[in-house]
Specification:
mainly alpha
Length: 91
């Protein structure tokens, strides 16, 4: 398990910076704090392993061309929907 110890700090940023950080956070599905930490790491040249993960994804992309796509697989595994699953449990 990886434990990260963080220190809280406060900075002043412009309204435009805040809006751009917020937009990046929404796009990435993460918090504004995470966006800021990533930007700081990138600026400082801290390697978070992201590039290695990207290389691994690129290297394996298309490895199973015959496999069904995610949406089809999920629908098959989940079945018809919540109502159908609940009816199955009631039997």
């Amino acid at each position: 398990m990886l434990l990260l110890y963080m220190r809280r700090t406060q900075i002043y940023i412009t309204e435009e910076q805040e809006q751009r950080i917020a937009a990046c956070a929404v796009d990435a599905g993460v918090s504004k704090a995470q966006v800021i930490r990533r930007m700081i790491d990138e600026g400082l040249g801290v390697d978070d392993g992201a590039e290695e993960r990207r290389r691994a994804i690129r290297a394996t992309a298309g490895a199973l061309p015959e496999a069904e796509d995610w949406k089809s697989w999920l629908a098959r595994v989940r079945g018809g929907g919540a109502d159908e699953r609940l009816q199955h449990l009631e039997r």
